[in-house]
Write a structure and sequence with these properties.
- The chain has one domain.
- It is globular.
- It has 52 residues and is mostly helical.
- The protein starts with 6 loop residues before the first helix and ends with a helix.
- The protein is built from 3 helices and no strands.
- Helix 1 crosses helix 2 and helix 1 runs antiparallel to helix 3.
């Protein structure tokens, strides 16, 4: 896996990570909730990294 390719993708992956960790309700973003269910926490962390 590599970091997200766009800022909007990174934000979506970070939101999915937050949902997976139980910090954000699934109702906030059904798309992010679906991603959270399909990807591991490690994968989401990798995508959530910014390319500094």
């Amino acid at each position: 896996m590599s970091p997200a390719t766009s800022e909007s993708q990174r934000k979506l992956m970070c939101l999915a990570l937050s949902i997976k960790q139980g910090l954000t309700p699934k109702s906030r973003s059904p798309e992010a909730a679906r991603i959270a269910a399909q990807m591991s926490e490690e994968q989401l962390k990798d995508f959530c990294k910014s390319e500094d």
